[in-house]
Description:
- By secondary structure, chain A is mainly α.
- Chain A contains 13 helices and no strands.
- Chain A has helices at 2-29, 34-38, 46-56, 62-74, 88-123, 128-142, 145-159, 174-200, 203-210, 215-244, 247-252, 258-267, 271-299.
- The radius of gyration of chain B is 24 Å and the shape is globular.
- Chain B is an alpha+beta fold.
- In chain B, strand 6 (145-152) and strand 7 form a beta hairpin.
- Chain B has a seven-stranded mixed sheet with strand order 8-9-10-1-11-21-12, with helices on both faces. In chain B, strands 18-17-19-13-20 form a five-stranded mixed sheet, with helices on one face.
- The chains are: A mainly alpha, B alpha+beta.
- Chains A and B meet through helix 2, helix 3, helix 5, helix 7 and helix 12 of A and helix 7, helix 8 and helix 14 of B.
Amino acid sequence: MLRYLARRLLWAVPVLLTATTCAFLVLHLIPGDPVNLMLSGRPASEKVRANLRAKLGLDRPLAGQYLYFVTHAAVGDFGQSFATGQPVGQVIAQQLPASLQLAGGGFLIGVVAGLLLGIAAGFYPNTTIDGMAMLIALVGISMPGYWTAMLLIYFFGLKLGWVPIVGAGLPVLILPSIVVGSFAIGNLARLVRSSIIEVRGEDYVRTARAKGLPERLVVLRHALRNALFPVVAMMGLLLGLFVGGGVITETVFARQGVGALLVTSILTKDYPVVQALILFTTAAYVFANVLVDVLYGVLDPRVRYR
Amino acid sequence: MGAGRFSRRALFGGAAAAGLAGIALPELLGDARAQGRPDATVTWGEDQDYATLDPRVTQSRHEAQAIMQMFESLLFLDTDGKFYPWLAQRWEYSKDGKSITFHLRNDVKFHDGTPFNGEAVKFTFDTVMDPKLGSQGAIDFLGPYKSTDVIDPYTVRVNWTEPFAAALTNLSNPWLCSIVSPAAVAKLGNDGFARSPAGTGPFKFVEWVPRVRVVMERNEDYRWAPAIFRRQGPATLKRLVIRIIPDGSTRVAALEKGEIDVCDQVPPIEVKRFQGSRDFDVIVGDVSGIPLSHLINTQAPPTDDIRVRQAFMYAINRPQVVQQVFFGVAKPAYGPLTPTTPGYWPGAEKMYAYDLAKARQLLEEAGWTPGSGGIREKNGRRLDIHFITLLEPDLEVAVQAAAKEAGIALNVEKVTKAKQDEMVMHGQYNMGEIRWVAVDPSVLDIPFFSRNVPAPGKFKFNWSRYGSPELDRILRQADALVDVKQRQQALAQVQKYVLDHALMFPVHVSIQPVGYRRTVHNLKFAQGYWQVLFYGTTVS
């Protein structure tokens, strides 16, 4: 098991290196001058531009910039943000807690609601319960996050006044978590449903019934456990998505977060921040995938790690 | 020579006042403090994120909203176009026009407790010029700055290498040229100061949570407000919070729910609703500077033909388009400067009034005849105008529909800033979109001076790509003339020239609609009509 983990983590190194190198190249290949973008349309003089170029290290040749980046990134130094001059680690650290909170909230709502709906639909297929559950799932998948967010703000924030819109504290996490979670609700519910329907036709479920187990135990002990297999794989992917993918939610709810930070940094070509964030999100995906593989083993004793 | 000598802006006041008609300026009450709650907090909903709070570094009018509550400049230029003493009590120009001597107040303290004096002025301006600081705005505002001599602790002489007509206007800028605490910079370093600034203003820095909020509190020692406020002593508000809320709908919802008290950039459709509401109201700033305009590329076909450019300008019914998009909140613009800008030339309003017949006639003369799909053609080519938009794509769709009436296909391409810059540098467009907030009419140099034509690797703003010695001459004249009447005449010539040659199609005056709860009083626009000053603000 430990050897397996070590090998998996070792494999992460070339993955991370490839991802950051690609990010570096793409960022420098797409047109746009970071200094111009930083000045956001202000008619600054050549003097201003030259000063900024030197300050940001953009006057070095591209190969030199790449070498500098790789050698420094290897020891955890991502340089300073072009926009704020702060160390990149600090810039990301400021945004990360909010992202993790949102990911946690969205994951909780998405997984709990998605599982419940999926189980209900899976055990009563082609009934009204199934129909309702799948309708909710469809809405969750297809409603654009921006629109869901506006509706929630309007009804629960403004009209009913139950939750704060941009205030502070835990309650302010509720609406954004629903928006982020709604996509997962839909996906999980559909996956769990089909998985359960499939499992219920398996021999071992029939055997369990035949030996006289009550239906409740058949479901919990035999069907559900096996049906969760593909679901766990999907949750791993969703976790990675949640951490980096809350851009719209972060913007509409005026929250901190690495998602909006990444988009702003790409648009303004804040190279150091983008490179560090790409590395970070890649790492989040790698980690989530390792976690999923480990969970496989816990759920299914037949899976062995070498 | 005292302050009065330099109130040349007052002479521009006529034009400025004409533009102000219809703006609901909040009243300034003589004894506002007695009426306000002394423990009140006001939260301002801001639409853009901040990167720095150092006035020497910033270029952002959004960051200015926080900066100008905490920092102050040598002199105060109000929206009435007059200069008032501020950190300097009086000032005089040298005979050669290359220096100004400022006599400073001796009773002012920075927020860190150190005294304000001539050394602080010298330190501020000298460090702005230091390449290591990376100044993005102030360095250009100081122009041909040479040095600052500290004559005695409270007298400084600021020197330029050549006569600099915009000096007083620029130094009055309440954010770009405001004075920083040298002790605080020495202690924190430049980057540290940018996140924990210390000035002399009525509010002190407390906290900055990136992408969320900037918190300020009342400076209890404040005793040096400019006379325009007609009150003295500390501000009435105890705390002032800037809350970053990028989305317009969320900002308005937060205002209605009471989570914020004042809100910038209220979407036009909400402005009318607020104006008729019992609990909320809106003040609309008609922003000074260059209106939202199309700069027309005179080098690329088909807009290299002046008849095509003029036809386009006649073809668009600006009052109607602007009414459609802004519901009557913004005014159509006709010239390169907005009416609240000093030196505005009202003659522009009589040029290019909507005249579809004339537009069609000009196109016929240029050889563009009606073709398939209602779009004109010439030698088998459609009349396509490639328009890149970054700022206001919604507006441009309305303009597109209007242009089609004359048989012009306005192809609107929404681009990112990076893409736009690249296309501009390589001349790959017929029209681009600009607007500027500016207080001095010398802003016209930026899009019209021949040295500002963009080229590969050189991003500049003369997007009409029109280099003319004649236009350069009158622009230079307008920049150098100290005599107010003569300068006004030169500026009128510039504006007429730009329109005569159809280099620019002005569309509408930029607006800053500020929504607020009716319990908040005395919101005052700073020069330029973008930011709001909170010194005199009270809450009932």
